[in-house]
Design brief:
Two copies of one chain form a homodimer.
Chain A: E1 2-6, E2 10-16, E3 19-26, H1 28-36, E4 41-49, H2 54-62, E5 65-73, E6 79-83, E7 92-97, E8 117-120, H3 125-132, E9 140-144, H4 147-152, H5 154-161, E10 166-170, H6 171-178, H7 183-192, E11 197-201, E12 207-211, E13 215-218, H8 232-244, H9 252-269, H10 283-297
Parallel strand pairs in A: 1-4, 1-8, 2-6, 4-5, 8-9, 9-10, 10-11
Antiparallel strand pairs in A: 2-3, 6-7, 11-12, 12-13
């Protein structure tokens, strides 16, 4: 089994109270792919420029990530520059250079077209839709989005949501999309727009899962060390979709477990800069924290 | 078995986006007592003025709350006036009139002196200490506090903490008392000051329990309706201590269950103004939401 992801591969410059680093490997599809690779095969669709370090491509391959969908274009790789203060729940974007991402028209390689599990990371909802048209019979489709698309392409986004099994977004985005301040109400409004399930991510406060029949709430894994929250949401999605990618049929009890795996991966990820921690995990460490999560929350 | 509480009985004027009410029954010991009364007998120690409506005293009695420790003094009852905006996590205090509470010197009636479970709600830490001196052999003692005492009576407060089994405080208070922004680190610093256990309350985001050997984290119960968060922390403490009040020996697995009962009571309480909802509960409704809590969080 495998999971397909379409999103960004980037070079990030990040400053937090714990350090400052330039041109780190980043991007939604990167975090997603590495996290998902601990559970299943990953098929990556993204675009990079000629300046993208070859060693990062080798890195993807080392994690058995299929890079046949990774286009190399003339120009520079997408760059994001951000800062975090002590309240690490919100990033301040200092600069965004779209570069080759600006003209990205994702093409799904022939070999990927029968993938059953698909994750559409945060990009233009029109592009997200165009990807779906290229996949023959997807069985479980999830998407992420951001405030920019809610504000500027709401109609396209709502059209997309009708085709989703699962929509992931953060608390501020859920409030903006639904027009509801209360998150449970917001989730129900989003469900009424089409997706079978919604997950509202609340940063260090965990997340809220809502479907037509069920609600499930997960606290954040308590951590003493948080050095860089960049990519936490995409890592969460990678752990979640990677775990689900192992099953032909996805039911809600599997999604609950997948949410915990996503939370485990995200909690590891924020402990060090960029992908430093994520790259050093293994299934033993992942399952250890999964068990800790149970001890921490069951009564 | 029974639990003793020392704290305030007040008349509150509260404004939220959902309404405005004057001279409502309030106060930390009030919320605590009603919540705890669903589990065990409650012994109340507080002070009121001659203006305190008799019907509220009858109300306490109806809930089998022992009011022999409720002093009636010449003067007016303590009054608190507060406002909440849409972000209901923080109250804005508009006015505080201490009135008879200003000269409160709690005297524990002879009949209360052998109580095993004691809750010292948020009052001057010197008074909290003076209460302990009047109890012969308490077995489980918990306290709450607030920023004012952390800023103005830190030494007394730290002295008190050494004698506590459990210290309850909110996230901002935990950060202020410990000097640590990270809540897990803050909890550990507080544990190092003396109490066996600490619970950091995070409003709608639930709470974090830490002891020397264990950590336990609970999300807030997802609610669509939040009309008045006044008293949520004291209701939480009442549910928690009320449940524990049924046991001779308190161990950490009982505290975990007690935290859920506390969360259940608090979640009901915020659904209506003042004590309106809290007064209409019963064990069936409480156990129903307890079970829902399990469904919402177990995986």
């Amino acid at each position: 089994m495998s999971v397909l992801v379409v999103g960004s591969v980037a070079l990030d410059s990040v400053q937090t109270p714990f350090g400052r680093h330039k041109d780190l490997l980043g991007g939604s599809a990167t975090y997603f792919s590495i996290a998902a690779s601990y559970f299943t095969d990953v098929r990556l669709v993204a675009v990079i420029g000629r300046d993208f370090p070859k060693r990062y491509i080798r890195l993807f391959k080392k994690y058995r990530i299929d890079t046949r969908g990774l286009e190399i274009k003339d120009g520079k790789t997408f760059r994001w520059e951000g800062e975090y203060e002590y309240d690490m729940n919100t990033a301040k974007t200092v600069a965004t250079h779209l570069n080759v991402l600006g003209k990205f028209r994702p093409k799904i390689p022939k070999e990927y077209r029968k993938t059953k599990h698909v994750f559409l990371a945060n990009i233009d909802p029109d592009l997200q839709k165009s990807i779906l048209r290229q996949i023959s019979s997807p069985q479980f489709i999830a998407c992420d989005t951001m405030n920019f698309w809610i504000e500027n392409k709401k109609r396209s986004l709502i059209g997309l949501l009708k085709e989703m099994d699962l929509c992931l977004l953060n608390d501020a985005e859920a409030r903006e999309l639904s027009g509801e301040a209360n998150l449970l109400k917001a989730a129900k409004v989003i469900i009424s727009l089409g997706p079978r399930m919604v997950i509202i991510k609340k940063g260090e406060h965990g997340c809220l899962f809502v479907s037509k029949r069920r609600c499930f709430t997960v606290p954040g894994f308590p951590l003493e060390t948080i050095h860089d929250p960049t990519g936490a949401g995409d890592t969460f999605a990678g752990g979640l979709m990677g775990y689900l990618g192992r099953f032909d049929k996805v039911d809600e009890s599997k999604v609950k477990k997948a949410i915990i795996y996503g939370s485990v991966l995200a909690s590891y990820n924020v402990e060090k800069f960029s992908l430093k921690k994520l790259l050093r995990l293994n299934r033993r460490l992942i399952d250890k924290r999964y068990k800790e999560f149970k001890k921490l929350t069951h009564f």
